[in-house]
Amino acid sequence: MKYSLFLGCKIPYYLKEYELSARAVLSALGVSVTDISFNCCGYPIRDESFEASVLSGARNIAIALMNGTHILTPCKCCFGNLKHVEHWLREDKLLRKKINELLGREGLEWEAGTGIEHILSVIYHDVGLESVRKRILRPHKGLRVAAHYGCHGLRPGNIVEFDNPLAPTIFESLIEVTGAEAVEWPRRLECCGSPLLEKNRSLSLRLMNAKLEDAEQSGAMFVCTACTYCQIQFDSVRCQPRKDDPGCNELPSVLYTKLLGSALGIPECNHLI
């Protein structure tokens, strides 16, 4: 299966290590990706203009279709929005007609059939756990990790089709294939607080700290993410000095691609765990 790598807007500027580790891991696992000049997935403007959000997402899908590839993204928010766009265009004929009229000005057209996959799904389904396990060189024995799924990868389940939204298991399986132990923790499916950061910072931080405290009390040594926004929240935002929350939790967060890359013995990732 041919994939184009969809990094989204934030990874290249705020989370370059996610791009580098994702590319390294995919290469080590034999997953080839191409680079296409995509635009924003449309997620940031969904509440401002539904039509603009759909057009933005549809344009990306149409570009991938024109290039004969499926879309692979490391970002759960991009993944979720692109899956929503696909769903809306399938279900709404009038919307589909309007969007395709706009895309037609560039010689593009949205059609069903372009796969939209998150990097975890590709590793789990396309590569397979056994194939990954055979490549592990530095298993993380004794490392206890809390899997943070993120909201956009799970809900609504009938649209994103990532895993069971109420009882997912994919992420824990992917963590354990590295040799680490995936801990059970009550707040694993709750929001990290990132969507509220600019609207209600105090509430956003409380949600984040509640999750980190729960993970720590459950015995985790790291929280593991596979979402751009969640990682920024648990890493950059958590570490920002502030007066409103002096007791900020110090539990570190690690990207799954770094966790796996280190276990695979990728030189760029060996120092990360």
Notes on the structure:
The chain is of the alpha/beta class. It has 2 domains: 3-119, Glutathione S-transferase Yfyf (Class Pi), Chain A, domain 2; 137-267, Rossmann fold, CATH 3.40.50. Helices cover 46% and strands 9% of the residues. The chain is built from 12 helices and 8 strands. The chain has helices at 11-14, 16-28, 50-66, 76-91, 93-104, 119-127, 129-135, 157-160, 170-176, 201-217, 228-239, 256-263, and strands spanning 3-5, 33-34, 70-73, 116-118, 144-147, 181-182, 222-225, 253-255. It has a 4-stranded parallel sheet with strand order 2-1-3-4. The chain has a 4-stranded parallel sheet with strand order 6-5-7-8, sandwiched between helices. Helix 11 (228-239) links the parallel strand 7 and strand 8 (253-255). Helix 3 packs across helix 5, helix 4 (76-91) crosses helix 5 (93-104) and helix 6 crosses helix 7 (129-135). The longest helix is centred in the first third of the chain and has 17 residues, at 50-66.
Layout of SSEs?
Blueprint: E1 3-5, H1 11-14, H2 16-28, E2 33-34, H3 50-66, E3 70-73, H4 76-91, H5 93-104, E4 116-118, H6 119-127, H7 129-135, E5 144-147, H8 157-160, H9 170-176, E6 181-182, H10 201-217, E7 222-225, H11 228-239, E8 253-255, H12 256-263
Helix pairs in contact: 2-12, 3-4, 3-5, 4-5, 6-7, 6-9
Descriptive key words:
globular; Glutathione S-transferase Yfyf (Class Pi), Chain A, domain 2; four-stranded parallel β-sheet; Rossmann fold; single chain; 273 residues
